[in-house]
Amino acid sequence: LILGMMPLLHTSKHRSMMLRPLSQVLFWTLATDLLMLTWIGSQPVEHP
Fold first, then answer.
1. Cytochrome b/b6 C-terminal region profile domain: from which residue to which, for each copy (predicted)?
2. Within a domain: residue 47?
């Protein structure tokens, strides 16, 4: 019952991420950084 009423009770004025270009750029930068660091961390350690 409560979950069914949530869309009707939600009155937040927040816009979605599609309408915030800077947030979208920062999100994709974070996602790319996460993937790059995961890949770098999985590489074997080599002595210089």
1. 1-48
2. no
